[in-house]
Specification:
This protein has 402 residues and is α/β, with parallel strands linked by helices. It contains nine helices and 17 strands. The structure holds flavin-adenine dinucleotide (FAD).
């Protein structure tokens, strides 16, 4: 039952001043969450968020809305579990509906190696606070009778799955509610204003250039999604990020309710049902790095083939819309958050195909880092310098799709 059915979000736009304590580049979930938490947790409201297009126009408004913490390494499980818990309280905190809906997530294995992976996932999740159990095939059938466990004889049969307590939430409402919460406390959010350069003085970033002129800043935060390298270049920072397209599509309404999120690690796809009853499907990134947001027929055909084989009821549905986003992929499939080695310039990036779920925790902890100068323990492992310290956090099996 939604407790906030009538809540209308009110966004109050501002004209930028000439200088701010903090300028955040990028009005996606992470930029706005950082602004929201600076204002609500630390009383820092002399903050400007500059967005090149409209807020949420990047990946934060293009994702498949899965919220989960069933990652494969302790550092990630702890961080994402904190974010899952923050999502559970975010509607009450902001007073705005985000259509947050708790859902079980089945992550299926079709091979011995897959079974070992899912058993290990359940074990590491339980050890570090996430709610995940391992299920045998007959238990999978109880949770989701629609799955053809034999995969039509076309793909290897389903041999087991991990089953996790996750959720979905309406992506635009998350973006808007955080923007509204920040604006109410005096944060300025300015859409349709790209940052075209960074002002560097004595080795420190001290402002940004926009088509309307220069704006001074005590601190500049890059929260630009798939454009991370373009902005970092302006500060002379080299990030280990490659931008890859990620596509998704949605069907018309399936008349029956379909509760779980169903994912296959071995087949590389996942499916859930939206609040409107549509089936929402996603897969892995396009292999070729690119800034393109084109949707391709190849993806549509191969993803549909996999999904229809495992969930035969989907044969009767029609494709309504297909789209793509530009994902900032890190080499170890973990985020990069915090300082860059250049004074006054911080990044929140490497959110790839999995950063929607991280919006509450990512913004909260980056705001704490900015306000106090101390890196919170939950994000310490995700520092940029982990690559030169040989402390990478490889988690591809958990972060590859959603
Ligand atoms: C198809 C798809 C499905 C996904 N599914 C999931 C999922 O189910 N669960 C999950 O957790 N994650 C998912 N993700 C990933 C998730 O959407 C992203 O990791 C997350 O939204 C990143 O948020 P962000 O704020 O860092 O970036 P974005 O939302 O991309 O925001 C960056 C913003 O910066 C702006 N910008 C860029 N350059 C400039 C500039 N120079 N000046 C000013 N503004 C600029 C852009 O216009 C953009 O609005 C998915 C992504 C895609 C594309």
């Amino acid at each position: 039952m939604n407790e906030f059915p009538e809540s209308e979000i009110e966004l109050m736009w501002s004209e930028p001043r000439s200088t701010y304590d903090v300028v955040i580049v990028g009005g996606g979930g992470h930029g706005l969450s950082t602004a929201y938490h600076l204002a609500t947790r630390h009383g820092i409201t002399d903050v400007l968020v500059l967005e090149a297009s409209y807020i949420g126009s990047g990946n934060s408004g293009r994702n498949t809305t899965v919220v989960r913490s069933n990652y494969g390494i302790p550092e990630a499980v702890r961080f994402y579990q904190h974010s899952v818990e923050r999502y559970r309280g975010l509607e009450e905190e902001t007073g705005r509906s985000m259509m947050h809906d708790r859902k079980g997530l089945l992550w299926m294995a079709h091979s011995e190696a897959g079974v070992r992976r899912e058993r290990a996932r359940a074990a590491v999740n339980q050890a570090f606070g996430a709610e995940t159990v391992y299920l045998e095939p007959h238990e999978i059938a109880e949770v989701c009778p629609e799955i053809d466990l034999g995969c039509g004889g076309e793909f290897p049969e389903v041999m087991g799955a991990s089953y996790h307590q996750g959720a979905t939430a309406r992506h635009d409402r998350v973006v808007w509610a955080l923007a509204e919460g920040a604006m109410r406390l005096g944060v300025h959010v300015v859409p349709h204003t790209p940052v075209t350069g960074l002002v560097v003085d004595g080795g420190r970033v001290v402002g940004v250039e926009t088509p309307q002129g220069r704006i001074g800043a005590g601190v500049v935060v890059s929260a630009v999604g798939g454009n991370a390298n373009r902005l970092a270049d302006m500060a002379g920072v080299r990030l280990p990020i490659k931008t890859h397209p990620l596509q998704a599509y949605v069907t018309n309404r399936y008349a029956r309710s379909f509760d779980p999120i169903v994912a296959s690690g071995d087949l590389g796809f996942y499916v859930s049902q939206t609040a409107r009853g549509q089936m929402l499907l996603g897969a892995e990134i396009d292999r070729q790095p690119s800034y393109s947001r084109r949707a391709t027929h190849d993806l549509l055909a191969s993803l549909s083939h996999r999904a229809i084989t495992v969930l035969p009821f989907m044969r009767d549905l029609r494709v309504l819309r297909q789209w793509a986003g530009s994902c900032d992929m890190s080499p170890d499939y973990s985020p990069i958050i915090g300082g860059t080695g250049v004074d006054g310039f911080l990044v929140t990036t490497g959110w790839g195909t999995w950063g929607f779920k991280a919006i509450p925790a990512g913004g909260e902890l980056l705001a704490e880092r900015i306000a106090t100068g101390i890196t919170p323990a939950l994000i310490e492992p995700f520092a940029l310098d982990r690559f030169e310290r040989d402390r990478t956090l490889a988690d591809r099996g958990s972060a590859g799709t959603h």
